[in-house]
Specification:
Layout (H helix, E strand, L loop, with lengths): L2 H11 L4 E6 L3 E7 L5 E8 L3 E3 L2 E3 L2 H23 L8 E5 L6 E3 L18 H11 L8 H10 L10 E3 L1 H6 L1
Length: 172
């Protein structure tokens, strides 16, 4: 093992590396980096959203399945590069799909399928919110999805206890 690999292996074994996971629209990606941001290892999982009943969505079971597969891919990369097990990290964070609509009831159950950033079904809401807020509200924003649901008197609205995005859902 050369010196950078030895340093990387020691850092990983000591739990000193940082892990970032990003939920992209076609891949879930994991990056393990050193404190100086040197890339150490990576993993990924391919996934695709589906158009269901006119809504672009991902099945929430696929979120967890994809996260596990992505992490497994990262762990295998660490083992292959450094010959050590990834057991702990200094810190980790999740990002991705910070727009969209995840409406949950008081039990944390999903009320309607996750509406991704890809949907453009909130035109009326944006047309009303933009002048009201004096700010251009994009169709992909959660507030646009919520207000569109209110305008359409969608049944789930009365049961919303928590509204978030995919990034917020994964963090909670």
């Amino acid at each position: 093992m050369n010196e950078p690999q030895t340093v990387g292996a020691e850092l990983i074994a000591s739990g000193g590396a940082f892990l970032g996971i990003e939920f992209g629209s076609t891949r879930i990606k994991a990056s393990l980096v050193a404190p100086d941001t040197t890339p150490l290892a990576s993993g990924s999982y391919a996934w695709e959203n589906q158009l269901r009943d006119g809504v672009w969505t991902y099945d929430m079971d696929d979120v967890w399945k994809g996260l596990a597969a992505c992490y497994g891919s990262l762990v295998a990369d660490v083992q292959g590069r450094y010959g050590v097990e990834l057991r702990a990290v200094a810190a980790m964070g999740f990002s991705g799909m910070m727009h969209g609509y995840v409406a949950l009831d008081a039990s944390g159950e999903l009320l309607v399928p996750f509406r991704t950033w890809r949907n453009n079904i909130t035109g009326r809401a944006c047309a009303e919110l933009t002048p009201l807020l004096d700010f251009a509200v994009p169709q992909r924003w959660s507030i646009a999805h919520l207000y569109q649901s209110i305008l359409e008197k969608q049944a789930h609205v009365a049961r919303i206890a928590h509204l978030t995005t995919l990034a917020g859902y994964v963090h909670s």
